[in-house]
Structure formats: C-alpha cells, structure tokens
Amino acid sequence: MAADPQRDADTEETESVLESTTESDGTAATSRRRLLSVAATGGAAALAGCAETFAGEDAAEDQLRVMVWSGNYADRFEEGLVSQWEAEHDVEIDLRRGWGEVLEDIRNAPEDDPPFDVTVAEGNFYYYGRQDDLFEPIDVDNISNYNEIMDFFTEIRDPEYGMPVDGAPCTIIHRDDAEIDPETWADLSSDAVDESAGVGIDTGFWWYPMYAAAIGMDDEDGASEMYDDALHDDVLQQIEDWGVEEWAASGEDIWQAFENDIIDIAQWYYDQTAFDIDDYEDLSHTMPEQTTGWMNNWCIVRGTEMHDEAEQFIDFLLDADVQSEWAQNHPMMFSNEHIDYPAELEDDLPTTDEEARTIEFPDWEYLSEHGSDLSDEFSRMQQES
C-alpha cells in the first residue's frame, strides 16, 4: 500500500497526529503538513532497508545525539563514521535509529528539550520539518567544507537549516536471462518489459517511481510533467502501463519478488542495490543517464544545547576524506566535489556539478500542494492491480 495518511496502514498513527494537530492550532494546513510527513513512514523503511527503531536512554551530557535512518544505513553509518569522529573529537556519538516518527518525536518534545541534537532529513522530511520550525539555522561561516559542496545540491534546497550530505539515485534492477536490457526509464514501457514477468516499484516513497515515469515519458524535459498538474494523470497512467506486479515497501520485498519469479525488472535505490545485488544470482542493475533520487539534508534540532557541536559534526560529514571513507562501506552519492569513490562506484555516481544535474530531485515546495491527491491515486492503482 502506498504510504498515505488516509489509508488504514497508518490509521492509528495518523489519527494521533491529526488529534494533536487539531488541539495545537486547529488549522487544516498544518494538519495536512503533518499528515504528509507521516505518509513517508513506509517509504523511509525502503531507504533504510528494514524496520527498526532505537533511542538511547540516559545519554551523558557530553554526548551528541544523532538520529539516522534505521537498518543497514545505521549499521554502515556506525561502522564507517562514528569511530572516526570519536577518534578526532572529545564528544561521543549517541546514535539513534528511526524513520517515520522522526519529525513527530521532535514536535511532541518540549521546544527546549529535544529528543536528539542532529537529524538526517530526506527531502520530504526537510520540507515539512522547516514548515513547523523543527530545525535551527546553521551558520555557514562555521562550515569549513561548505564551498566544496557541489552547487546543485545547495540550489535544489535552501541549506540554511540543513546541509546536503548524502543520498542515492534510483537505478533499474533486471534479470539477466529475461531478454531485458534497460538503459533508460523509457525502457520500462518497452515490449520486452511488457512481455516479462512484471515490474516492481517502491510504494512508500511513491514520488520516486512517479519521477522515473515522468523522465521516461520524453514529452517534457526531465521530469517536468511532475510540475504540471494537468499531466499528473498521464504520469500515473505511464506507471499503470508498466504492469506492476510488486508494490514494494522495502528492499526485502524487491529481492524476494525476484527470488519468487514475480518480477523481472524493478525501480529501486542505488545505495540498496550496488553492494547487495552480489548476494543474488543472475541479477544486474543499470543506472540511467538521467534519473531521479533522494538527498539527505542534515539538520540541527530546535532547542538543542549542543548547537556548536552539531555544526562541527555536520561539517565533519561534509569533509571529502570522510565522505570518501564512508563510500567504502556504503554505496551512496555524496555532495563534496572532491569525493573519491571506490572504483566500482565511480562510473555511476556524480563527481561534478554537471553530472549531479542529471538527477531530478522532487521539489516539495510544489509537491506539498498535490501530495494527498497523488498518494490517493497511487493507492488506487495498487488496490486495483
């Protein structure tokens, strides 16, 4: 089921969010913002890899509480970064794991007593978090690595409240013996795919398959169809024409669908694919030259008493050497123009501003006005398939 606050998959959480919103200010606009951020609950699990929540208790005052996506993102973050930071700094990291509840945890906490000091925020979370004043501004003068960020990543979202650090483009996974050799998102509409077992797509972060479909339509530049509400039905029809057989809520769903011969091709995320695909036989993946993807902005949580340390930590995450080491353990896209990727990743991931601009990132300033309707339509397609 698509991540959607009006569907029963998230009924209890949605009702509690709606009640708390109505009690706090009684405005439908804020309720809608909060509900749409809840809608990312299922999808963040796809980016994280598996469902898991952890919050350390009784952390020492000299610890920096850092919220990251659960699952293998957190595992690889801990393996590749925490020890490196702690070897160079006096402040220890208290790592917290979560996803859909991240913004609501901040909202529900006293403004001067946040549940953590630093948080990761994908584009949806970053937009709605800023709308509700959940983040503190970052002083760019304290970010020594700011000028090494590729310009594109600071243009797509205002970095005042969060620095762009890491993310992943969408890639196409396909079965080697299925006579499918995709190169672009348009190939998901080919006769070869139509005659295959079927297609798998993400349903939690429904906007990424929509952007992939728009890119493949070729009627407008890039994913421009997503910014014309008159063309939204055409984009949805494009996905419907793909013949989706697996509406996945996690990477495990996608891999299992391949194992069970339910699908021969899938839209998924590079960071969940590039290393993990080696665990499966007769599968390959192709990164389209033009694609969509997600990017994390790292934010300082309102009310923290560790603002200076939080800025230092975010600056650490932006360092080229740190990102290069991080990439050894986690096949993600990084923002520093001096990133040095492992050989097996460097042909797929952007190392220049020009290459970064081939990735279409969702613009939530626009999508926020259409998210509810699009989510409804996405759920309808899934239910009727």
TrEMBL record:
<dbReference type="Pfam" id="PF13416">
    <property type="entry name" value="SBP_bac_8"/>
</dbReference>
<protein>
    <submittedName>
        <fullName>Spermidine/putrescine ABC transporter substrate-binding protein</fullName>
    </submittedName>
</protein>
<dbReference type="InterPro" id="IPR006311">
    <property type="entry name" value="TAT_signal"/>
</dbReference>
<dbReference type="InterPro" id="IPR006059">
    <property type="entry name" value="SBP"/>
</dbReference>
<feature type="region of interest" description="Disordered">
    <location>
        <begin position="1"/>
        <end position="30"/>
    </location>
</feature>
<keyword id="KW-0732">Signal</keyword>
